[in-house]
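The record is kept unedited without comment:

——
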Amino acid sequence: MADYAIAPSILSADFARLGEECDNVLAAGADIIHFDVMDNHYVPNLTIGPLVCEALRKHGISAPIDVHLMVSPVDRIVGDFANAGASYITFHPEASEHIDRTLQLIKGEGCKAGLVFNPATPLTYLDYVIDKIDMILLMSVNPGFGGQSFIPSALDKLGQVREIIDASGRDIRLEIDGGVKVDNIGQIAAAGADTFVSGSGLFSKGQDGDPNRYDSIVAEMRSELAKAQ
């Protein structure tokens, strides 16, 4: 059985109750907190920084925190997120002057490192750094905003990356981010993903005041993933 992980993206959470939101979605069976960092430079939006990551750790979140850096430059902020409690730090190769160096920096800070590929970014970067990677994140939307629709060509790209990972023999997670919902998560898993970021597909559907509101959504996702085995 595949080691599937559901990673709610807090970009779609209620920020006035962020700690509680994270508690509830993890209690419902999610595995990883996905943390979208946007700088209004690499992408046209501005979101959250290390202080929010640190606040979640102080609140008591013990699950892995997966920090997706949509920022340029990358290196300056890596240490801040590592000190704030990040578990994974992933970045876009286009945003780093020296990809190998950035990966080494992340690992040197004690975090797991990964590369993020936009829909039109080639996978050739992996030819040279696969030995330094713990996670590969494929964007199935163009980065910068939540609530976008899944780009179908990401399924073919997932299959290509799955072949690369399997050929490497390394323990590398294959994450997908963008438009992941109950009705397509099974198809995405069948294409090769094992880690599923869902923002509006999870948080937005659950915001109705019931503390158990995420249980049914996560359960439906698990059911669809079971069918994809």
Remarks:
- The chain has a mean pLDDT of 93.
- Residues 5-227 form a domain with the TIM Barrel fold (CATH 3.20.20.70).
